[in-house]
TrEMBL record:
The chain crosses the membrane at residues 5-23, 38-59, 66-85. It is a multi-pass membrane protein. It comes from Cryomyces antarcticus. Its main location: membrane. It comes from the Eukaryota. Residues 157-168 have a biased composition (Basic and acidic residues). Keywords: Membrane, Transmembrane, Transmembrane helix. Residues 135-168 are annotated as: Disordered. It is found in: Membrane. This is Major facilitator superfamily (MFS) profile domain-containing protein. Gene3D superfamilies: MFS general substrate transporter like domains (1.20.1250.20). InterPro entries: MFS_sugar_transport-like, MFS_Sugar_Transporters, MFS_trans_sf.
Length: 168
């Protein structure tokens, strides 16, 4: 029993326990990212507090059948995550904004809409991939492109040639 507790705790800690801190930071637009991340952690904390207070009452009333309720909750979570949580791996913040532009909460609708918007906005996606800021971090609105910063001009052709030489 003790080893199973350690296995569960280490597996849960390395997987689902990180979700309230990482996922909100990836899905919220720049203008509300800090607040969205905070509310994600608040929701997780309220859920943990509620469950901590409820577990002794449940185990006292229905004993081991409480574990069936936890199993059902886990089974419900699988299709919910599949249908409602879009993949954020290897996507820029600008791409995440495009992904959540869909009117539907369903993942497949968001992906279909994302594909269309990505084709219609190649400048936004390409600029973000090359590390150029395309959105103002304070307002979340598109910002003006500047050819120079602090008196230094950036020649993108020379920068790409330099990168190519470095790879050889």
């Amino acid at each position: 029993a003790a080893s199973m507790i350690f296995i569960f705790t280490s597996t849960f800690g390395a997987t689902w326990l990180t979700v309230p801190w990482i996922y909100p930071a990836e899905i919220f637009p720049l203008a509300v990212r800090a607040k969205g991340n905070a509310w994600g952690v608040v929701g997780w904390s309220v859920g943990n507090g509620w469950l901590t207070l409820l577990c002794p009452v449940m185990f006292g009333a229905i004993q081991e059948k409480t574990l069936y309720i936890f199993g059902i909750a886990n089974a419900i979570t699988l299709p919910m995550v599949w249908a409602l949580y879009p993949e954020s791996n290897q996507r820029t913040l600008e791409e995440m904004d495009l992904l959540f532009a869909a009117d539907s909460p369903w993942n497949w609708e968001a992906e279909r809409n994302f594909k269309l918007l990505k084709e219609q906005n190649p400048d936004l996606v390409q600029a973000a991939r090359h590390g150029q800021a395309v959105l103002d971090p304070e307002t979340g609105l598109p910002q003006e492109r500047k050819a120079s910063t602090a008196g230094f001009s950036l020649d993108t052709n020379k920068a790409h040639q330099f990168e190519e030489k470095g790879r050889e």
